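hey so i finally got around to running both of the ones u sent me last week. sorry it took forever, my laptop kept dying halfway thru and i had to restart like 3 times lol. anyway pasting them below in the order u listed, first the sequence line then the structure token line for each. didnt double check formatting much so if smth looks off just lmk and ill redo it

first one:
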Amino acid sequence: MKTKVLMLVFASFAFIGIITAQEANSKLLSKYSQEELNQFKKDNLKEFYKLNYFVEKGCYIIEMPSKPIELIELKKINPKTGYVIPDYIITLEDLDDFNPLEYNIYRSSLKNNYFRAGDTGYVIVVQSDEDIDVAVTNEMRIKNIR
């Protein structure tokens, strides 16, 4: 009986550890190692959640608006170095499972940024730091994460 209880306790802790380890979106691995993500999560939990939120929900794709807006040209980069990949042409396939860490995407403090996705007819909307911070604060409050 004690063996079964110990096995159940061990399995519960192992399951909790697996769930915690999988909280990082796999898109983050294009730029960071698992060890870096684990350390980042340990050192600065809220910033870790903001980064995770950014790749999951902080950007979205819309059709090119009919009204004029300030657009930044979207460019493919090497996520590890940040260098632009020369002569890369953005296609609709690039937008299918879009990872903002693989492009010259950046956030502004108070305003959304708009990136023109080549000649696809689409724009990538990047939420402001302020909007992402509010959303992450609310999610962490709901999940009771401190």
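and the second one:
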Amino acid sequence: MVGLLAAAVLLVQTPVRLVLPTPPGEAGLEVVSHPAALDPPRVCPKYGWEYPFLSTGFVRRAGAEAELRFRVYCQSRRRLPAAVSVNRALLRLWSLVDSRLGLDHARPYGRLVEVFLTEGGDAGGEQGIFFGPGPDGQPRSHNTIYIYHLSSFDGPVEKAREVAHEYGHAVLPAIGGFEAPEEWGNGSLGERLFLMWLAEELASGALKPEDAMGAEADAVAAWVRDRVLPLSDRVWLNGPDLKLLKSKGPEAMDEYLGVMLMAAQAFPDAMPRAVLLSGGVKAMDALRGVLRATEERETWEVRVPERLRGREVWLPLPGRWEFEGAEELERKGDWVKVRPGGATVTAVKWKGNPDPLPV
């Protein structure tokens, strides 16, 4: 009897590993859950609350050692499946951010994001840099996400949205100065950009619902249609409203989101440079990053979304360009309005006299 009990305890305390399948050439991802209580429990940096259970997330690049990127803590054994699910979703988002934006977690916090799944508090999430003890008891600053009132953390798409929002705050460049709905816009950008990408990956079969908090492809696509496309399409069809971008209200936030989402759809290959070239923390800085990134190349292939084919659209292309597959109609500052003839517009930087004399 004693031997059976000891074996059961050993089984409970053995970490459970889950290696996530990844496309060739991408970083390997691994979730490791620890179903046994941590001894001592982890004390969170903001409140000093105890979290006895842990799920860790590792990434492994070709020829390199596995590197820790996430620690997800919970306060009871019954929440461990939720911790593993959040960890898995975050690892998938990390992979998308790595491959599509070239970003990783901030070095000053050990390339680590720590998540605390919390029973109490008001429903919702929070991200912040908080100073407190680490797992080794030594005080330091932590890139931290809290998800509160876990009993209300429900609904697959809503859970995916909440995780994506707080992770956007944790990993994307901070663009702020807004008065509403919140000061910093990288969370709202994260939820829309990341769910847009998740919708693509789910639709193609590259990811499964369990990679997105259980959200099905059709449900995520519907959320994107309602919450993402109206913002991006307004910029596709009208160009940016610079007056709005310079303001501070919720309309300014929406305009910033629209510019970045449109750029991610039209110039996905430019986005790693766009986030690096913004050079500031205002919405206009984010726009400048996009313009600087598109200006760097001599040729662009712009895929016009099917929903916009046959419509006149605006493209962020400073300077003069020649177009194949589209007719140039109008220029407004660094944006050009074109009438596409099909699904793809090829833009080639003008090689002739920058200011030709009129005929």
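quick thing i noticed on the 2nd:
Residues 16-175 form one domain.
anyway thats it, ttyl
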